[in-house]
From TrEMBL:
It holds the Pfam family Pyr_redox_dim. Keywords: FAD, Flavoprotein, Oxidoreductase, Redox-active center. PANTHER family: NAD(P)H SULFUR OXIDOREDUCTASE (COA-DEPENDENT) (PTHR43429:SF1), PYRIDINE NUCLEOTIDE-DISULFIDE OXIDOREDUCTASE DOMAIN-CONTAINING (PTHR43429). Transmembrane segments: none annotated. Gene3D superfamilies: FAD/NAD(P)-binding domain, Rhodanese-like domain. Its cofactor is FAD. It comes from the Bacteria. Residues 461-540 form the Rhodanese domain. It comes from Turicibacter faecis. Belongs to the class-III pyridine nucleotide-disulfide oxidoreductase family. This is Rhodanese domain-containing protein. The keyword Lipid biosynthesis does not apply.
């Protein structure tokens, strides 16, 4: 059996390794257009920023390793020009000698990855303009930093690569401005959580410009659409990627609705004996079963392993994705899993939403705030999605939630989880428990929540809602919600007659606990429609109150 793999980064090398483990007799050949293989793309920004000293730690396996370990020959600097599905042949070009030749396969695995997607900007062809997609890109950018010692940089785009490079370039000593064309950062968060994260970045002094684009790139500065100039000795284009499907299209392989290669759960394409995996394929949502394109190293490795297993007679199949992802910037971490609020609504779910702000560990071990937004289906009471922003333990909690969603947990089950506790890493009731308690109270015990977004919209529409600030007077006078009346929780029982029990009430405090206590008092005294503000005053201010991006522009 002759197996050919096109591409030798994450998915391709995973495929060849699994195929060899299953079948010692198969002849396996791999063609890779680049010079470097099996590297960690996720580590590249940190190498550029100096957090990783040795580039070799990101490329631990070379051609010799795969030859000795798996008896597989990987031919680098070899570009596959065409595929003939009928003859089961590929046309290959040796980029070093320009020699072209034909190779034949019994099974073909496409692991062609993704390519950067660039906006049309005048001047982007200049030598100080880069994108970061490959290991070679990282080496080139690093060499530029060492040779030219740039002082300023502009990053275009605020996805994972843009944010990771923000930290990397600042760590390398540059003054960096992040430019984003949209109203929020492009990291897959709901608007309220994206705004919360932006507040934290701005508090750290990050230069963030939203709702603007670059009109032209010049030698040492860029010109924004409004004519403003920003100093830029280096420009990084981090405006996303698109699946590399050129070969697949030429071979008549069907593409999915996302523009990536359409595969079934065993990675089979529409063409006989051709499989695909990694960043070039379309996967599907585990929750909705709808197609999705979510290029991540973890997904690439998983789908590569499945492809390598199936072509050698295995039975592995893909079970769907939750879109679980995480990015760290400075000491902050933001993560998500499952459906966003908008995705869940579009899928037809009736939602209950809660925001919780709790310490990530005991306060006497310097616990810091962890913000969690959780989305559940009112009908089934199952978790649909979670987003989290904090400092420590974000990964731990998002992995717990991903597991809960995968196995269809209902909100009442969260409180009963026997989670690991020590004051250095957690609280006795973990933030995961609090999420379960809040959702369970809302869905099963008559203690509904109202999100800051819903409250803001209903007040803007002129709806008559009694908004009650239950904090102490000094906190109220310092900052309070629009139209809020101050009734401290300790005084509330004596002031019940001043409220209309037939009119909707929203109670709030700083983060939700005292607001919930006030909600209980009102409900127990016969008030019919009482909500607690999800996440409290702090959540409202950081998700709804207007804030400006940094104006620390360096005029040319």
């Amino acid at each position: 059996m002759k197996i050919i793999v096109i591409g030798a980064v994450a998915a391709g090398t995973s495929a060849l390794a699994k195929a060899r483990r299953n079948n010692e007799q198969a002849e396996i050949s791999v063609y890779e257009k680049g010079e470097l293989i099996s590297y960690s793309s996720c580590g590249l920004p940190y190498y550029i920023g100096g957090n990783i000293d040795s580039f070799q730690t990101l490329t631990p396996r070379d051609v010799t390793f795969f030859k000795e370990r798996y008896a597989v020959e990987i031919k680098t600097a070899h570009e596959v020009l065409a595929i003939d599905p009928e003859k089961k042949e590929i046309q290959v070009k040796d980029l070093k000698t320009n020699r072209q030749f034909t190779d034949r396969y019994d099974a073909l695995i496409l692991a062609t990855g993704a390519t950067p997607s660039f906006p049309l900007i005048k001047g982007m062809e200049q030598s100080h303009v880069y994108a970061l997609k490959s290991a070679q890109d990282a080496l080139t950018i690093k060499q530029h930093l060492m040779s030219y010692h740039p002082k300023t940089a502009v990053i275009v785009g605020s996805g994972f690569i843009g944010l990771e490079m923000l930290e990397g370039l600042i760590s390398a000593g540059l003054s960096v401005t992040l430019v984003e064309k949209n109203q929020q950062l492009s990291i897959g968060l709901d608007p309220d959580m994206a705004h919360y994260f932006e507040h934290l970045l701005l508090e750290k002094g990050v230069n963030l410009l939203k709702q603007t684009t670059i009109q032209e790139i010049l030698q040492d500065h860029v010109v924004l659409q409004d004519g403003t100039s920003l100093s830029a000795d280096l420009v990084l284009l981090a405006t996303g990627v698109r699946p590399n499907v050129t070969l697949a299209k030429k071979a008549g392989i069907e593409l999915g609705t996302t523009g990536a290669i359409k595969v079934d759960s065993t990675m089979k394409t529409s063409q006989e004996a051709i499989y695909a995996c990694g960043d070039c394929i379309e996967t599907f949502s585990r929750l909705t079963q709808q197609p999705m394109y979510h290029p991540l190293g973890s997904t690439a490795n998983k789908t590569g392993r499945i492809a390598g297993d199936v072509v050698t007679g295995g039975t592995l199949s893909y079970q769907g994705s939750l879109g679980t992802s995480l990015v760290s910037v400075f000491d902050l971490t933001v993560a998500r899993t499952g459906l966003s609020e908008d995705e869940a609504r579009q899928a037809g779910f009736d939602l209950e939403i809660c925001h919780t702000i709790k310490p990530d560990k005991a306060l006497y071990f310097k616990g810091k705030e962890l913000m969690i937004k959780a989305i559940a289906d009112k009908k089934t009471q199952k978790l649909l999605g979670v987003q989290a922003i904090g400092y420590d333990g974000v990964d731990k909690r998002i992995d717990v939630f991903a597991t809960l969603i995968t196995y269809g947990a209902t909100v009442d089950e969260l409180f009963h989880l026997d989670l690991a506790y020590a004051p250095q890493v957690a609280t006795t009731k973990d933030p995961v428990h609090y999420v379960g308690m809040a959702l369970d109270n809302a869905l099963n015990h008559g203690r509904p929540l109202m999100t800051p977004t819903e409250l803001h919209q209903r007040l803007q529409q002129g709806e008559e809602i009694q908004v009650i600030d239950t904090r102490v007077r000094a906190q109220y006078e310092k900052n309070h919600l629009p139209q809020a009346r101050h009734l401290a929780q300790s005084e509330l029982r004596d002031q019940l007659k001043t409220l209309n029990p037939q009119q909707p009430v929203v109670t709030y405090c700083n983060k939700g606990v005292t607001g919930n206590a006030a909600q209980n008092i009102l409900i127990n005294h016969g008030f019919k429609c009482v909500y607690n503000l999800s996440g409290g005053q702090k959540c409202y201010q950081k998700t709804q109150a207007p804030h400006r991006a940094s104006q620390q522009k360096k005029e040319e």
